[in-house]
Amino acid sequence: MTEVWGSPRPGAREGRRAPGTPCWTSLLAHDLESIQDFYGGLFGWAFYSPGPRQLGPYVRATVGGRDVAGLGELAPGVRLATAWTTYLAGDDADEAAEWIRCLGGTVGVGPLSAEDAGRLVLACDPVGAPFGVWQGQELTGAQLTGVPGTPAWHELVTRRASAVVGFYRALFGYDVKPADAETSDYLTLQIGDRPVAAIRGAGAELPRDRGPHWMTYFEVADTDAAALRVVELGGQVLRPPHEGPAGRVATVADPEGAVFTLLRTAR
Fold first, then answer.
1. Residue 142: how many CB atoms within 10 A of its CB?
2. What is the maximum span of the chain, computed from C-alpha positions, in angstroms?
3. How far is CA 138 from the centre of its chain?
4. Does the pLDDT of residue 130 top 50, yes or no?
5. Percent of the chain whose predicted confidence (pLDDT) is above 90
6. Contact, 215 vs 261, CB < 8 A?
7. What is the pLDDT of residue 4?
8. CA 160 – CA 202 distance, rounded (Å)
9. Does residue 49 contact residue 58 with C-beta atoms inside 8 Å?
10. 47 and 33 Cβ atoms separated by less than 8 Å
11. Can you tell me the distance from the alpha carbon of 152 to that of 9, in angstroms, rounded to the nearest whole number?
């Protein structure tokens, strides 16, 4: 584990999250039932519905009885591409929406209340990367980290980190530091002295079919075995397992095309 990636440890994560901390990740799929089969088979997730949802069918994924992610279903006839959305913690979703607009971003959904769970905004930053702001109430964020099946890291992949870092710094007050001397366009977003996320400038390697996007990394016990399991369950391996700065990683897609990264954190 490197300093760049912070130091997540196994255990519960309850209570208020500092503004700007990635706190939740959620997927809107076209077929909620089949996508549950995929992620349940891959990560061992169990699912439950938290109650009536004004935004449509939605379940929370759990590991050991603790909430770790959300899965929802798009309305019939909506042909949007599926993707994991990173939510950043905020104290006031309404104020965050105003700041997003003032700073050159776009608010697509909200601010609105998700019943007693919290209040949310779905937006795009000035270069088009979708993200969410979550003002947690009953649900402050993922309740478990550092074990297989839980979100381990969140990273914005864009063409040039310098083109958008000012937006996130102004919105959340991050301290920004270069990740290392060898990677000039990879910046860590810090709260105090703790890295919480990163922005990676991919340049010409940015996938044209995806554009700027937030990438969710999920912890696994064995990256190679998990990548094979992705294929067995109907997904794809986009970048085979290899060693990265924080451990062994592989970039994969679920059967509906939502991209995410498997990570076996270096110990």
1. 24
2. 50
3. 20
4. yes
5. 72
6. yes
7. 44
8. 7
9. yes
10. no
11. 10
